[in-house]
Specification:
The protein has 276 residues and is α/β, with parallel strands linked by helices. The chain contains 5 helices and 11 strands, in the order E-E-H-E-E-E-H-E-E-H-E-H-E-E-E-H. InterPro entries: AB_hydrolase_fold (IPR029058).
């Protein structure tokens, strides 16, 4: 099996779930899901940027990408794709951890900065989900291109990370110009959330997938997946990739990227990629 191993670990933590603005299952609010030059530019301008102390005069810097300070030096950059709740506190906490623990800068495009951007409470129809995924993938592509305009970004150490809704974009990105992918809280398989996984991952690409064994959305524990052969992780999808790792947490929560054991595994993975 190409996936290095599947770890079962114990833990418990509360989490964020589906979209922020809708009220009950099946509800949507807003109408806009169309990628446009203006919309993509807005998601980038309002992106949450975190610079490590070494790049920011000895003190970590946080703010919007449009307000980025002048930087001297070079560093790896992680493009972080948030879940359906937007650039939530968990995403910002993860970015701070990347800066303080690994000396990596990170930027999280803000999809919800788009005026009248459609939000939802699951489950909604899969056609709506796929429109969301198309927008998020366009945001990711735009962010990767825009990030290369920053002179301080080490282009050989550009990494993608995504959680939940954002993880779909990270998994589907078909470019070969990134050093690694981190896929949190999505299972890379056919489930209620997609018409098909449509992964763009290369055959020998470094990938870390971390997810709860009983994830409330993407495991077989969710009745929305009852008619699908859901296993609940990316292990099957990544089985032939010798550089892929899958970590399954013995838990029922969704948002896990800040759990201590997930951080430890993520740190080892990223150090192997960024400092081989």
């Amino acid at each position: 099996m190409g996936v290095s191993r599947v770890l079962l670990l114990t833990a418990a933590l509360c989490c964020a779930t589906a979209a922020v603005a809708a009220d009950k299952p099946g509800d949507t609010k807003g109408t806009v899901l169309q990628p446009s030059a203006e919309n993509l530019a807005r998601t980038w301008a309002k992106a949450n940027l975190v610079l490590p102390a070494a790049l920011a005069g000895g003190r970590r810097w946080e703010g919007r990408a449009e307000d980025a300070p002048d930087v001297i030096g070079i560093a790896p950059l992680v493009v972080v794709m948030h879940g359906s709740s937007g650039v939530a506190p968990a995403v910002k906490e993860f970015q701070v951890w990347l800066a303080d623990e690994l000396g990596a800068a990170s930027v999280a495009p803000d999809s919800l900065a788009i005026p009248d951007r459609l939000t939802y409470t699951s489950p909604v129809d899969v056609a709506t989900y796929e429109r969301v995924h198309a927008l998020r993938l366009a945001e990711l592509d735009h962010a990767l291109k825009a990030a290369r305009d920053w002179s301080w970004v080490d282009r050989q150490r550009l990494v993608m990370a995504g959680t939940s809704e954002g993880a779909v974009a990270v998994g589907r990105y078909a470019g070969k110009d990134v050093a690694a992918r981190l896929i949190y809280s999505w299972s890379c398989e056919d489930n209620y959330f997609v018409t098909a996984p449509r992964l763009g991952i290369g055959p020998k690409e470094p990938v870390l997938n971390a997810i709860s064994a009983r994830d409330p959305y993407f495991s077989a524990a969710n009745p929305w997946n009852k008619d699908r052969a859901v296993t609940g992780s990316c292990a099957a999808a990544l089985k032939d990739d010798p550089r892929a790792e899958v970590m399954v947490i013995d838990a029922e929560v969704h948002t896990i990227l800040n759990r201590p054991e997930v951080r430890d595994r993520s740190a080892r993975f990223l150090r192997g990629v960024l400092n081989p």
